[in-house]
Amino acid sequence: MERSYDDRDGFIWLDGEIIPWRKAQVHILTHALHYASSVFEGERAYNGKIFKSKNHSSRLIESGKMLDMPIPYSLEEIEAAKYEILKISGLSDAYVRVICWRGSGTDMGVASAANPVRMAIAVWKWGAYYGDAKMKGAKLDISKWKRPSPETIPCHAKASGLYMICTMSKHDAEAKGCSDSMMYDHRGYVAEATGANIFFVKDNEVHTPLADTFLNGITRQTVIDLLTARGIIVHERHILPNELNGFEQCWLTGTAAEVTPVGQIGPHKFTVGKLTKAISQEYEELVRS
Fold it and tell me: DSSP state, 195?
């Protein structure tokens, strides 16, 4: 049985120190626990190298700015800290989680400018995010929750609070025997899954939702580059729900998900086709190159 994440061997980088895993704790009155004042990055290391590491560190810093929460470490310091804890972990293939949050301080209302911004980095071994779905295609529910308008949230920040409706959507999906859930945006266009971007194939051309209300994933951008290099036309556009039945293939992209084929979304079915398999394989080779 898998051990709880607070009860594991190893070490965690915390505010510049290496702390035994079980000792990496925060106070119950930490501002982020009450008001979701935190941003994070999920990254993967392959053969001891974190893929697109600097891109992730840059996005972490930008996410902090969007939440009016300046990260107290430079890009170079974040990079050094990630590789320090990766080396100490003894893992060459690993998941790397970096999180920054408003800690405990003199503020405990909505405002938190007086509280320090803290940072922690944990590394662990994490296999395929969707299990055997990478072979047969994931089954997705369609969420009742929609991605909010950019006028209501900093939708391009990788902020913890934005994932609340994702958690609820995924719980609903799992209760129905699905791996994940696809979400629409506030206008009714296809948006993304709960923690991954989505791509569709029709007549050997690729269609993916325009990232104007959700995170433009680093893996998403990488896959678009791979497709473009292959001469595949990629349409980044608004996709209506009634178009789903006309697509032939579908896949998800994300640091955790990597490139995962989709076999079904609600009543709509897709084949794990040639292009899906090719891009999945090409991405696997790229991250290990």
Answer: S
